[in-house]
Design a protein that fits this description.
This protein is α+β, with helices and mostly antiparallel strands. It contains twelve helices and 18 strands. The chain is rod-shaped, with a radius of gyration of 57 Å.
């Protein structure tokens, strides 16, 4: 199995873990470094409650020469101390085409790895899987440079995590543009960079331009396109050219077969931050998902401990509840006889209260009872039957079953203290009984002394009759 095939297969698995670098549950600091021949840009990100946030940014000028790498290390160490970064912070580097190159995809039996300027054992490579289609471009970097970048990172107490190509700063932007090829020429101070992408946005070429090449840029672009024509799709669609320099835009306005535009989003810090927050993959040196797994394990253990404590507390609480329930049941059993005694006492008290109330009512309403007794004393003998009596303080009304002799009997009787009987219209609910006897009488007034004396004698006779 070739090295390229292994890299392509590993690229299908590795991106998932690398993409979660912006959501890592590990260290709370990340340092992103963009290195060019004459400058070094550093961005410090820190994770807070709302996610990752850029807290520091700095750009330093560098001088070419023997002290070039020493300047880089000293600059990083100074920022490390200034920004109080913790030891072991993950570092992400963005390198130009003079250090990290790109080989366009080959065709047929020819693979991109076959075009490496060094042997595969001397290089570190990563397929550019941005488009998701094969064949891939191949990002490559000599292992000596990888070792040097890692040495500088380690000397500054950083962990080298990933190395990006500078061309990847513009990959998401050019993907949406039309054109057979997308060409970006960016300028940082006095240095110009050339990046060429295919229709889908995959990087085909990236390099640093010499001053003479900038002066003859039209010829350089034609030569680059001619070298890529055999490796890209053919067609007459003009190539899109994006320039960060207004001077180059004006100079290229008259070029044929090029659709020239000005690249507005050319602030380097913003481009670096967008790249770091995106899901693009560079050359992975040290995947950060190990810290994620470790922290997830620690979090899981912590949650398990909390869960066990919670379960223990629930078991203890449940035992206490059962104990209280048992105590309550025992207390209920002890109190049950007292409760029953209290219930019986309450019932007897209510009965006595009702009896007292009934006696009181009987004493207060003895007139009504006397009137009822008067009706009974004067009612005809059997088979006559009394079925209804209504008495109050002034009136007696009664109804019953019987014959004409019974009616005659009643008319001959007198009710002491009351006026003579008179016919009475019975209520509707008595109609079904067909009462023959239906009389009423009113209490006589004290203005009639003869009636009162007669009533007294009649009352005496009635009393004797009831006694008999």
């Amino acid at each position: 199995m070739s090295a390229t095939t292994q890299l392509v297969r590993s690229a299908k698995i590795e991106p998932y873990f690398m993409r979660i670098r912006t959501l890592s549950a590990g260290q709370k600091h990340r340092l992103v470094l963009s290195l060019s021949p004459h400058s070094l840009s550093l961005l410090h990100f820190q994770r807070g409650v709302m996610g990752w946030k850029r807290v520091h940014a700095k750009t330093l000028n560098l001088l070419e020469g023997d002290e070039y790498l020493s300047q880089i290390q000293n600059s990083i160490a100074q920022c490390f101390l200034e920004w109080k970064l913790p030891s072991g912070t993950f570092a992400y580097w963005i390198l130009a085409g003079d250090i990290l190159g790109v080989i366009p995809p080959g065709h047929g039996e020819v693979s991109a790895s076959a075009a490496l300027p060094f042997s595969a054992s001397d290089t570190r490579t990563q397929p550019d899987t941005f488009t998701g289609c094969q064949p891939f471009s191949l990002m490559w970097m000599h292992k000596d440079w990888v070792a040097e970048i890692e040495r500088i990172s380690a000397q500054c107490h950083l962990q080298l995590a990933e190395i990006f190509s500078r061309a990847q700063l513009f990959q998401n932007h050019v993907e949406k543009l039309p054109g057979r090829l997308k060409i970006v020429v960016e300028q940082v101070t006095n240095v110009h960079f050339l990046h060429i992408f295919n229709t889908g946005g995959m990087v085909l070429r990236t390099r640093v331009l010499e001053s003479s090449e900038v002066a003859a840029l039209h010829s350089v672009l034609q030569a680059e396109i001619a070298g890529l024509d055999s490796k890209t799709e053919s067609g007459n669609t003009p190539s899109i050219c994006l320039f960060t320099s207004a001077e180059l835009v004006n100079k290229a306005a008259s070029w044929s077969n090029f659709d020239v535009h000005s690249l507005k989003s050319s602030i380097e810090d913003e481009l670096i931050e967008k790249l770091w927050r995106s899901d693009l993959e560079g050359i992975v040196i040290r995947p950060t998902h190990g810290t994620v797994v470790r922290d997830m394990v620690l979090l899981s253990v912590g949650l398990a401990v909390v869960g066990l404590i919670g379960i223990g507390f629930m078991a203890w609480h449940n035992e206490k509840l059962e104990q209280k329930i048992d105590e309550g049941r025992n207390q209920v059993r002890k109190d049950l006889p007292n409760v029953e005694t209290a219930k019986n006492l309450k019932a007897r008290t209510l009965l006595m209260a009702e009896a007292v109330s009934a006696a009181k009512n009987f004493r207060e309403k003895d007139e009504a009872m006397a009137a009822f007794t008067l009706v009974l004393a004067n009612f005809p003998p059997a088979p006559a039957t009394l079925i209804y009596v209504r008495t109050d303080e002034k009136t007696i009304a009664f109804a019953g079953l019987g014959s004409d002799e019974s009616v005659k009997w009643l008319k001959e009787r007198s009710f002491p203290g009351y006026e003579p009987l008179e016919d009475w219209v019975t209520p509707d609910f008595l109609e079904s009984s067909h009462p023959v006897i239906h009389f009423k009488t009113h209490k006589s007034t004290p203005d009639n002394p003869a009636t009162n004396s007669a009533a007294s004698s009649t009352a005496g006779a009635a009393s004797r009759t009831v006694a008999q």
